[in-house]
Design goal:
By secondary structure, the chain is an alpha/beta fold. It contains five helices and 15 strands. The chain has a three-stranded mixed β-sheet, covered by helices on one side. A three-stranded mixed β-sheet has the order 3-4-5, with helices on one face. It has a three-stranded mixed β-sheet with strand order 6-7-8, covered by helices on one side.
Length: about 260
């Protein structure tokens, strides 16, 4: 097994998730089903050989189960973000406490910079940073300066239609990306092998590579076949209740 990740942090969904931010128009999440799906997600991560750290639900923050947005965990340092959504800014407090258990070098995105982890895609020591409604150029430039301090690099990708960068592109190691929509013709991604996710299954572009396995949302058969045919072992995970909140597989954990 090519084991890049040994741990993952997740946050149990809160009952208040029914009030989470969304533009999906898919209805209100079923909290009890979300709990079951979240446990299945944890089980899938465990199957990939990672130790899963589970944080308690926080009713004050409906979107707090989407831990990816609160931090960036690299091989050399941790970066505590400054989420662009006002209602999510204080989620970083508990995340900083958790991350400090594993990292001595912790950096911060500071006002007026905003940055959410869903806009950051790691490819080795380079990080693509989406400029979105949640991540601004000041935040991206702060992150690039932090990365440079630790001998890593970053570059900006300007988003047009999607919420986060990783809504539409996922790095699956082996110089391969799952990609859809506006990113297919993005110049910065042209040197990678593309697994083009069909438009009618665009949600499946938010998949994650974890130690030689790829987690993909359940219910997208064309995308499943494409990723399998590219040589990956695939685990399907039903995250329908999180999709209702514009969330996906990458959003639900911080892998490091």
């Amino acid at each position: 097994m090519n084991k890049l990740f040994s741990k993952a942090i997740v946050n149990t969904p809160s009952k208040s998730m029914v009030n989470g931010l969304t533009s999906a128009n898919l209805g209100i999440p079923d909290y009890n089903l979300a709990l079951i799906q979240h446990q299945n997600y944890i089980d899938a991560l465990t199957e990939c050989g990672v130790e899963v750290i589970v944080l308690k639900a926080d009713e004050n923050y409906p979107d707090s189960t989407f831990v990816e947005d609160t931090a960036l965990l690299t091989s050399k340092c941790a970066v505590i973000t400054n989420p662009g959504a006002v209602s999510r800014k204080k989620e970083i407090v508990e995340m900083e406490k958790c991350v400090s258990r594993f990292y001595s070098d912790i950096e911060y995105i500071k006002v007026p910079g905003t940055l959410e982890g869903g806009d950051v895609m790691m490819v080795g020591n380079h990080f693509y940073i989406g400029i979105s409604g949640r991540t601004n150029e000041t935040g991206a430039e702060q992150l690039i300066a932090i990365l440079n301090k630790y001998s890593m690099t970053g570059s900006k990708v300007f988003l047009k239609n999607v919420l986060h960068l990783k809504t539409g592109v996922a790095y699956l190691e082996n110089n391969t990306i799952a990609i859809t929509g506006e990113f297919i013709h993005e110049l910065q991604f042209q040197n990678y092998k593309h697994i083009i996710i069909p438009t009618d299954e665009s949600y499946a572009a938010n998949c994650i590579w974890v130690n030689d396995k790829v987690l993909i949302p359940k219910g997208f058969p064309k995308s499943l076949a494409l990723i399998k045919n590219a040589g990956y072992e695939v685990i399907e995970v039903d995250v329908s209740e999180f999709q209702k909140l514009d969330g996906g597989l990458s959003c639900l954990s911080l892998r490091f």
